[in-house]
Design brief:
The structure is a single chain. With 163 residues, the protein is mainly β. Helices cover 13% and strands 51% of the residues. Strands 1, 2, 3, 4, 5, 6, 7, 8, 9 and 10 form a ten-stranded mixed sheet that branches. The longest helix has 6 residues.
Length: 163
């Protein structure tokens, strides 16, 4: 399964459905199942932002309780839209869609970037500890002695690593 690593609190807010899009500076042609991974980094300043804090509180989360270094959700990546206009409080995507309000605030809608649209977002019942990577990365899971283990394929070394 392909995995996307995100910094907290953005990963949890996206996985919990508070944001409809994940914004990236790069596009992907990949479409299909996607897991959401939380990096070890938590942006504590962002967690205290007056617009972010209520969204976290709505889900009983704080900077201290956000999961990190784990796969927390799965979804399907459906579209990757180029951002054509950024008007400081709203943006226009290549299909003519307007992004505003919470979706706009929770993303980076600079012209030339991309808004990834997903469907069927589901939080996992049990989070999976995994080391993140830049870009989209591949995750393999297997059961060993009653515990889920991950195998990550390293493109640079062409090797499999167990975590």
């Amino acid at each position: 399964m392909k995995v996307l690593s995100m910094i907290q609190p953005w990963a949890s807010l996206f996985a919990l459905g508070e944001a409809q899009y994940e914004t990236r500076t790069w596009k992907t042609n990949y479409r299909g199942p996607l897991a959401i991974h939380t990096s070890k980094k938590v942006d504590k300043k962002a967690c205290l932002d007056p617009l972010v804090q209520p969204l976290l509180q709505k889900h009983d989360l704080t900077a201290e309780t956000l999961p990190s270094g784990m796969i927390i959700a799965k979804c399907n990546l459906e579209h990757c839209y180029k951002i054509l206009e950024d008007n400081e409080t709203w943006a226009v995507l290549e299909d003519g869609r307007i992004v505003n309000e919470t979706d706009y605030f929770l993303g980076d809608y600079r012209v030339g970037g991309y808004a990834w649209e997903v469907t069927n977002m589901q939080m996992l019942d049990q989070f999976i500890v995994a080391k993140g990577r830049l870009g989209l990365w591949e995750l393999k899971l297997y059961l060993r002695k009653g515990q889920w283990k991950t195998i990550v394929y390293n493109l640079k070394t062409s090797s499999l690593n167990e975590k």
